[in-house]
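Hi R.,

Here's the chain you asked about this morning:
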Amino acid sequence: MTNKIKGKIVVITGASSGLGEAAARLLSAQGASVVLGARRSDRLKSLADELNRNGRKAVAVATDVTHRNQVKKLVDTAVQEFGRIDVMINNAGIMPRAPLERLTVDDWDRTIDVNIKGVLYGMAAALLHMKKQKSGHMIFVSSVAGHKVGPDFAVYAATKHAVRALAEGFRQEVKPYNIRTTIISPGAVDTELPGSVTEPDIAEKIRTYYEDIAIPAESFAHAVVFAMSQPDEVDVNEILFRPIKQML
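And the predicted structure, written out as tokens:
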């Protein structure tokens, strides 16, 4: 298959670790220029510096996706630096989990702000440019929890179901602008996501579960490359993948 990655301008939120970092590394290795956003500016800069030392093109922009102006600055930086944006990967997310009866309302608010509003802000910032270009690819990161609901993660699942709903609505609305849309729904992947669980007993359960079955973050990066590498007339709308050991 022809390398469809080389020369692409890709913006990634949540790029300082996990799925975002893995995607940045693989896309960069295949010739994409990456514009990286995350809150942890030190780790973000370190990654960008490493990629640039290796002859790649990477720009780091400190970004909290709960602030619309920061997400807009991230995307606008890509356009200012490279003249366009080809792919927006709405990856930033958190996974606080607890039974609803514990009323962890602060966690609920944070999860909604990052997992839903953060995605909306990324979509809004990139769509402005993609409409003008009449081209682009919006990648939404959902989860297996965006397909299934279980005890302890109803709120997280609700946000990931919302991501899929937003992505499908987006897909239907952007037909006049030649924009592709992909939802990627990973299962248990080895990232720092379980670290966002604030309830100690739930956190320990998740940690043990992930240690037993989680697959490398590179699995997500390869899904991104697959979606991006299709012929121009092909729109891969959804990818759902899990560790082979995962039951849910």
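Helices lie at 18-29, 41-53, 68-82, 105-133, 154-173, 200-213, 218-228.

Let me know if you need anything else.
M.
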